[in-house]
Design brief:
single chain; 134 residues; mainly alpha; 3-stranded antiparallel β-sheet; elongated
């Protein structure tokens, strides 16, 4: 399950992650790196691709709200709470927030407390796309 959480946390502003049904791989391209090298730059990728599935976007996941929830409900130290809330005010906050959690030894608590939210988002996405990961 930690792999799913790590995958969901990799989805950041302007970063799209795709699942390739044929290779059963996740990556940041809607096509394989081999196909990308051979792709004519004038060619557009098909809108409806039965092999490549885009995971929920950064906006659809709403990381900021999940992270705020964690700080409000699970971080007791006032100084750490302030630092985390300050990070969440930034435009690009994801990496800094996760680094801060590691720095103050709260990352595992974050995963234990909020991991189920990310897993639920992933499972709903998989169900919507008729994908089975069990």
């Amino acid at each position: 399950m930690n792999k799913i959480i790590e995958l969901m946390l990799a989805i950041k502003e302007k970063v799209t992650v795709f699942y390739h049904k044929d290779t059963k791989q996740f990556d940041y391209f809607p096509i394989s790196e081999f196909e990308l090298r051979e792709l004519n730059t004038d060619t557009l990728l098909p809108i409806n691709d039965v092999n490549n599935f885009r995971l929920p976007s950064h906006e659809e996941i709403n990381h900021k709200e999940i992270m705020r929830f964690f700080v409000r409900e699970f971080v007791e130290d006032k100084e750490i709470r302030k630092q985390l809330f300050d990070i969440l005010k930034r435009y690009e906050y994801m990496d800094a927030y996760l680094e801060k959690l590691h720095e103050v030894n709260l990352y595992d608590d974050f995963v234990a407390s909020c991991g189920d939210i990310y897993i639920q988002i992933f499972e709903e996405w998989a169900e919507k796309n008729n994908l089975d990961f069990k």
